[in-house]
């Protein structure tokens, strides 16, 4: 636009002749936030939800798992331009091929947001969406264990559009120190130790989830295939909200976060679930024995409903455990 000229619609249109380009208002099909999805997948308060129309899918009420027949039904009905897969709080394996087939049938593009599971994918311990998705996005700071940041991957066909959407579309100058740190993280991910680390994350998640189940807690979907699990507090602790549990455990030096569970009747501020992951403990060198101990500590705090004496004694044990497994500096 010339300096001082008013917004010129004709000029704008001439510069964006690509009517095929995905335009604001198009339909996205993505996982509902309360069922494990992410704000950036079309929640109305997020820019993604302000720009696009969104239909959400959820997990099955009985199994806590994504039901591919339901995805197919919804996709045929809402005819999305883009199907988003991937989650912040879904403990089970993703069926990328199933999604790809549905996307192909309805003429949608497929985006896999592997923010949480990127480390498992890199280590070959969770199927990779790369062969079938048009776009794969990830953070670099979750299981990938790198700096806070992100990566967008795409097929050759979309390279130019993605690059210009990042710059000049959205982003200013790059953070070179973060790019260097991402390179270090990806270099680490190529090493055999990284695969061993990811396998131990999974072993620890199995040990922790089995111990929690053994102590009578409910887990959404009955367990996990990944690094995280979602405790459903309602059955064993009907009066305890996720927020209360998070606070009590925090006082005992156990860091978890409150989380909505599928079909939660409580508001997000309170919620009925806890999300627990094993990557950080695994980095400290803790193993399945420590996970079983941690399950015991968690249930002690919850059963005591955060009573000061219980919190105090658990905190002492947590401090002792952390002293046995200090943070390593490389
Ligand atoms: C964490 C996460 C992101 C990125 O969120 P940040 O707040 O930038 O960490 C994107 N998608 C999913 C599914 C995530 O879990």
What descriptive keywords fit this protein?
six-stranded mixed sheet; alpha/beta; four-stranded antiparallel sheet; 10 strands; binds pyridoxal-5'-phosphate; about 325 residues; Aspartate Aminotransferase, domain 1; Aspartate Aminotransferase, domain 2
Describe the structure.
- This protein has twelve helices and ten strands.
- By secondary structure, the chain is of the alpha/beta class.
- A six-stranded mixed β-sheet has the order 2-1-3-4-5-6.
- Helix 4 links the parallel strand 3 (82-85) and strand 4.
- The longest helix has 23 residues, at 192-214.
- The mean pLDDT is 94.
- The site of pyridoxal-5'-phosphate has 9 residues, from loops.
Short characterization:
The chain contains twelve helices and ten strands.
Strand and helix map with partners:
Layout: H1 9-15, E1 27-31, H2 47-51, E2 53-57, H3 68-78, E3 82-85, H4 96-106, E4 109-113, H5 118-122, E5 135-139, E6 150-154, H6 159-170, H7 176-189, H8 192-214, E7 218-219, E8 228-232, H9 242-251, E9 257-259, E10 273-277, H10 279-283, H11 288-303, H12 308-324
The structure holds pyridoxal-5'-phosphate (PLP).
């Amino acid at each position: 636009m010339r300096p001082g000229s008013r917004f010129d619609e004709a000029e704008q249109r001439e510069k964006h002749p690509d009517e095929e380009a995905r335009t604001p208002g198009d339909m996205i099909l993505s996982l509902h936030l309360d069922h494990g999805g992410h704000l950036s997948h079309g929640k109305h308060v997020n820019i993604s939800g302000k720009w696009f129309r969104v239909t959400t899918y959820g997990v099955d009420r009985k199994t806590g798992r994504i039901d591919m027949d339901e995805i197919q039904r919804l996709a045929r009905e809402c005819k999305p331009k883009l199907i988003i897969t991937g989650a912040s709080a879904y403990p089970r394996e993703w069926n990328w091929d199933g999604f790809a087939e549905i996307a192909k049938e309805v003429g949608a593009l497929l985006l896999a947001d592997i923010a949480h599971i990127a480390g498992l994918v890199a280590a070959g311990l969770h199927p990779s969406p790369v062969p079938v998705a048009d776009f794969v996005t990830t953070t670099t700071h979750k299981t990938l264990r790198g700096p806070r940041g992100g990566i967008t991957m795409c097929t050759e066909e979309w390279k130019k559009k993605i690059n210009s959407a990042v710059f000049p579309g959205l982003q200013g100058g790059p953070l070179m120190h973060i790019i260097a740190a991402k390179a270090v993280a990806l270099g680490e991910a190529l090493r055999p130790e990284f695969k061993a680390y990811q396998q131990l994350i999974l072993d620890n998640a199995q040990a922790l989830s089995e111990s929690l189940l053994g102590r009578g807690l409910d887990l959404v979907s009955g367990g996990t295939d990944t690094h995280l699990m979602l405790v459903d507090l309602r059955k064993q602790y009907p009066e305890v909200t996720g927020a209360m549990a998070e606070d009590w455990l925090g006082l005992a030096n156990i860091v978890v976060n409150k989380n909505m569970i599928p079909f939660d009747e409580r508001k997000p501020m309170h919620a009925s679930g806890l999300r627990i992951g094993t990557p950080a403990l695994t980095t400290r060198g803790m193993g399945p024995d420590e996970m079983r101990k941690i399950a015991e500590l968690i249930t002690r705090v919850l059963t005591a409903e955060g009573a000061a004496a219980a919190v105090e004694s658990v905190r002492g044990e947590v401090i002792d455990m952390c002293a046995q497994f200090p943070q390593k500096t490389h």
